[in-house]
Amino acid sequence: MDVLDLARLQFGVTAGLHFLFVVLTLGLAPVVAVMNTRWVRTGDPLQERMTRFWGQIYIVNYALGIVTGLVMEFQFGLSWSGLTHYAGDVFGAPLAVETMVAFFLESTFLGLWIFGWHRLPRRAHLACIWIVTLTAYASAFWIMVANSFLQNPAGAAVTGDRLALTDAGALLTNKALVFSFPHVIGAGLTTGAFVVIGASAYRLWRHPGEDRELFTRSLRTGVVLAVHGVPIAVAFGFAQFATVPEGKFDGAAASTGLGVMILIGEALLMATLLFLLPLIKVLPHWRWTHPLLMALTPLPFAAAILGWISREMGRYPWMIRDRLTVADALSPGLTPGMITASLAGFTTVLTLLAVIDYALIAKIVRRGAAAPALGAPPEPDEPPAGRPALTLGR
Amino acid sequence: MELIWLGLLVALPAGYFALEGFDLGVGMLLPVLGRTRRDRDLMIAAIAPFVLANEVWLVAAAGVLIGAFPLLEGKVLFGLYPLVVVMLLAWVLRDAGLWFRRRLDGDAWRTLWDAVIAAASLTLSLCWGMALYAITTGFTAPLWHPLGLLLGVTLTLAFALHGRAFLGRRVPRFAPGGNPALSAVLVPAPVLAVLAAAAPQLRGGAASPATLQTLSLLVLPFVPLLVAAQVWVWRTFRRGAGPVPSFF
Predict the structure, then answer these.
(1) Chain A contacts in chain B segment 147-206 (CB below 8 A)
(2) In chain B, where are the structural domains located?
(3) Among A281, A332, A380, B20, which is most buried by a count of CB atoms within 10 Å?
């Protein structure tokens, strides 16, 4: 494999890993925010434990979203400085807004939500998770603006040997964006839904005596979320065919990926509308359905990755369609030694951490919702350590 | 307009050094000041509420680079390629250590991740010194130049002292005395010096006026909100880390 192939592989692997965790973050954030809202409104301890249980899964997943995202942010300057040199005046702007506004707020308020439990007033605490949810979607929006620009370079004109920004509005109304962004939202909601459904089904099936009420309600919440998410994903998926350029999916990887993703989407649509929704009342009680529900969980993840493969491979050899080839976008001077080392380092570390992260999430699910670590009440018998500056329970 | 973005390009890394500096310092000091598991839990609990709000300053700095100084972005990151890769891996592993360390109950598990946090914090600090030196030489000297290593060691000590001062304020029995406000002002000095010296080249790498104008419209109105959010973090946790058990 030459330098170009290695650099493409590195981006594909790191971006793919990143999106695995992003797609679940997008799905679970609104779920946790709604549960948190119900708890604050009703004071119901069951709603509190639901918030803490699903919230814990959400944040452990989010951890890998963050670390893979860090690698993404710096990767452009590392291996693709040809891109930032040629199109940085246009392509850099949405990325900058994402990091400086959306992610900055998301990270700050997430810290407040996780560590401010029992510290912030309840409504202020609730506001934090809603801000995190909103900014997560804002992040997704700005990244889609940047990617959509690569697919269709609207709002820019060639000046000399670089692209200049001529119409910021065109960036935001890009035909490659207007349907793909809602499609990503639908995909996120779908993924969140089937994780909630699958994990709840596991608990009801394996430990039918523990927290029946909590997981029954969670399972139904998952189904309601699927009823919204899957049709949105499928509808905006098909809508994109109107705006996709001729010959985009000619390649084997792109067309196969697209085909399998569509099959999965259709299967989930039928399962949701013809099976899950009509049976929503009895699903928690019909144990024979639970292994089937668990088996559905990986499907949205697979569809998401296949979708991205087809979207990205479908524009090869263009980095920016009709403007810049992938080969020209490479950092000049990138040697095989450099790219091999970074590919090996990023792939090994991120994959290892991803596997550990999923194992930890599985452990969280297996432990159940009796006493989630997130938002655990202060330990009553902790002796204070010195000044009240560090309050250890009291 | 360019001056505002230049200001952000200077302020954000400086803020990162002042804030994440004490996170890295405490991380490095885990094997030094944290003799028992309980001690290390307290040390991490002291920084935990701030880590997410602190590290994002560097993420934002990278955003300024890619958005407002796109011609520099490739130059700087590609010029520091091996260092950037090592620093990213160290950052990733440090974060993973914080998120993972309390997810299982065993001693071995927690000790492992504490060791990862300490090693990663140390590595990141050393690399920052080497990176800053490399920038001042315009990427002409080799990245492992002795002066770079010296700057790395200096920064490491500075972060360690800063972390110790912060810890002393929050959990006095670890390290009484120390003035974290003072060290917060001193610690960014190297990065400020490097950026000030590089100011002419920085301006040369700025994006077009049209781009800067669009960026300003999209970002600057949010700056009060960004500042307010950060201030809220400090107000919320001014009396300490919050009730244990900490999530990190």
Answers:
(1) 169-173
(2) 1-237
(3) B20
